[in-house]
Design a protein that fits this description.
The structure is a homodimer. Chain A is built from 16 helices and 31 strands. By secondary structure, chain A is α/β, with parallel strands linked by helices.
Chain lengths: 569, 569
Amino acid sequence: MDLSRLIRVARGDAEADVVFVNARIVNTFTGEIEEGNVAVAEGRVAGIGDYTEARETVDVAGRYLAPGLIDGHFHLESTYLHVDQFARAVVPRGTLAAVTDLHEVTNVAGLEGMRYIMECGRRIPMDLFFMAPSCVPATDMETSGATLGPEDIRRALRWKGVLGLGELMNFPGVIGGDEHVLDKVRAAHGRPRDGHAPHVRGKALNAYLSPIIGSDHESTEYDEGLEKLRRGMRLMIREGSSEKNLEELLPLVNDGNYHRCMLVVDDRSALDVLREGDVDAVVRKAIRLGLDPVRAIQMATLNVAEYFRLEGLGGIAPGYYANMLVLRDLDTLDIAEAYYRGELVARDGQAMFRSSLPSNEWIKRTVNVREFDVESLSLAAGTSETFPVIEIVPGQIVTRRRDERPSRSNGSIVADPDRDLLKLVVVERHKATGNIGVGLVGGFGLRRGALATSVAHDSHNIVVVGVDDSDIYAAVKEVERNQGGLCVVAGGEVLASLPLPIAGLLSPEPLEMVAAKLEELERLARELGCSVNSPFSVLSFLALPVIPELKLTDMGLVDVMAGRLLERV
Amino acid sequence: MDLSRLIRVARGDAEADVVFVNARIVNTFTGEIEEGNVAVAEGRVAGIGDYTEARETVDVAGRYLAPGLIDGHFHLESTYLHVDQFARAVVPRGTLAAVTDLHEVTNVAGLEGMRYIMECGRRIPMDLFFMAPSCVPATDMETSGATLGPEDIRRALRWKGVLGLGELMNFPGVIGGDEHVLDKVRAAHGRPRDGHAPHVRGKALNAYLSPIIGSDHESTEYDEGLEKLRRGMRLMIREGSSEKNLEELLPLVNDGNYHRCMLVVDDRSALDVLREGDVDAVVRKAIRLGLDPVRAIQMATLNVAEYFRLEGLGGIAPGYYANMLVLRDLDTLDIAEAYYRGELVARDGQAMFRSSLPSNEWIKRTVNVREFDVESLSLAAGTSETFPVIEIVPGQIVTRRRDERPSRSNGSIVADPDRDLLKLVVVERHKATGNIGVGLVGGFGLRRGALATSVAHDSHNIVVVGVDDSDIYAAVKEVERNQGGLCVVAGGEVLASLPLPIAGLLSPEPLEMVAAKLEELERLARELGCSVNSPFSVLSFLALPVIPELKLTDMGLVDVMAGRLLERV
């Protein structure tokens, strides 16, 4: 950046690269709408005023000019998209910067995986920032591809673009004073540290905040959100694909705290981004619910930049990056154009740039399953009459434990579709240990076939739900063959699959293709009898042993509240 | 800090060090008043809630508990006090943290001097933070003790406690694109960078802000302050000993921008701190002028901490430093007690701690004047009939140039008290160059004798105003003998002096003694006919060649607007 040229343009002594004339500028610093022209040079805002001399003039024609949106908390992996396709999806939605915690990629491929995504992130017309994942792996009751300790956190924090410590999900560890967890927090001294503390209140919250945790995005209730603000946390109000907290939390935003509140998406699927939008959809909904539009924009721009200390982002001001949106209307946040560093990158919902990543480029082979046969998937009957079943709670990621008398065949426990009891299998895929966890799940409704995915929080082994072992076996083999992904199998045949060969989590394919394939997979699952919405998403949480009550990892069934593996009787 | 003990106390599983019960807590995060108890351990707030178990209980008895005040911009040197005595003055006033730009000490003694003050600052019960001085020296038309370049800025920024770049006073340099100045700004990339841009508006302001300057404390007009807020600067509203901007600027503070405004003192004398207060006086006055008391406190606590990224300061919340004030009343900010790291450090305006600095400790000999005789102070008549006189503008630091026919005697220009034309002399004192600048000043009113000071912005040579050369000579000798300081001389006799042997700027003596001596010096000056208020302060700005219109340095008279030394005709 040629600072001295920027200064000359600002002074009016040199021609700008672009000048935006006749704009109503959304001033996020003061909450006002200002009228004026904006001169841009060197990818930065040179000045606001009566500038006219420029190589290019954009007539905003009385429409609004707002800073590019910044999403303060999201997980790239929830979209199944690689960063270039992610950018194609969200840039036309106005998201020109975002902060991601790559804890899915990192659980699979460690800091090397994070580094790879970061490098790809430099080739897209938006600013991606990263948090160092704090909880990899989530527990020691599962096999992950990588483990991050305090030294890894320190190493990642030295990389340009890594802002602080990612969401500290292990709140019981902090509250319990676990020194290993505290060491990771200490490694991020002086940096933003994101929280994750659902329902943590009162003295437990005070304890969690002892090392000063700057934000929380897990509040679901008014009082909870207010308490967190009062205790010094910034409130990230989340509106994702499954978790929707805006209606509950927006009423607590007022003159006294709005500058400490943000709007974020956390987890949003590619389908939802395409249909409804990204963080722009959250801003729009907040306005619809009664929030002042400028304030809603502040909560997805400057407030985020201030919290994460993103110099030059979040506002339209001299020296700031020229990341700007032309809005036809403020109340509907109708985005006509998006400019990144002063260059047009999207118009009328369409990206004006192409993918710049080589399509055959990914980290490395990450799906390594030890040879096994279909008999390995059988579940020995044991001596007890009953068996613990994982019961899905519709619309939530918690499960319930229900003890049932299962059907048996030849000394093995088998699925019983008539009672909606299906086999659930987790096959270790990082280190070819040969670990296979087998259990029963209720609530899927599948009448035949199997569904498999290598996206299985947080260790991302292969998780499969199915009626018979041969379909389950075929599904695992298909995921292995694709080096990750989703598939639907029935009658020994693969009906459809979505390969996710990048860390077994992301697709190199275009956005539209990923979305279409996901729709097809969901349709096929429904045809096989599946009765839950977003079955692959539901499946992906059944192996997450930090969410109550009963879960299955490659090591076996986990009693989450007791924090231990169940012993078979 | 034992974090795991802090967590245990927060959980309620261990006894606190102190618990403050029955408090009305000023919540700077949400702008509310909360009722509750505050547990403290390890010098930090463990929690807010129903804590009672502690080694010590402080019954706040329904009074208010507020976070310690933070002054975001002040110059230690304006008090003439060393840091321990400064702390004795301001801690009882509630200032428990402050950010100082030591550009006076640094002009004299370079980074070594700054380092010394920083080390002393660790021994006082308040948190001192520092900015790396950006403009040392102010110009090349004077001799300073030190020069700081970009490498020095980088070095200082590596020191713990140095937050960013000090006020960028050389705004013409930035606007003009001076690469030497821009290099210093670049050295502070990613750090807070304070501005100083009096009356800079429009395109010049845009140009000044090109490298993103975070704050300004020089706004004196409503529109100017608003424009700076709109362009992304934080507004520091200053209320010092001489510059008072609160009444003008407070009306612009509203719901949309208050969180980007701060209250600061900039320059406040020890006398004013004793009589009226420090930043507490500014908060009090803001409340008196109609600002909500909690908001006024936010502007001198959390807002400052957020701008400077002072983790754990500015609020009362878990993990935050237990720097707190017990207030009898909110509207009058009546401070009953001050606690630093949970320990009582002041009560009813009295410091509860002693000086901890050895009284004979200071940097080094800094007043080095080359031998000279009284004849060196004469001002040769020259060929021109008139001579340019520096005319003081009452209450301002700008001067006017007035060309007069001076009185002459034996081929020299001499003082003429009847016409209020006095001799002004600047004697170089850093490098014993023998440089002596001589000129005439109007407006002091002195009838006889001389006043001298080694505090002379920004290079701090010895500046003297006087009626006859022998008194001027004696005054210089007295300052030299004291290794810096102020004095009043008449009839060849030293009537009084205040030695400032620390860099020629600060006294090692107690606050009360410094204040008493300053009062005596001012009284004696009045007795000699001096008609200006704070004559030593006025004198200290007559050698500052970045403030219009005519100034005198050790190199001679400076035409400030032309930016050059005057040539004698």
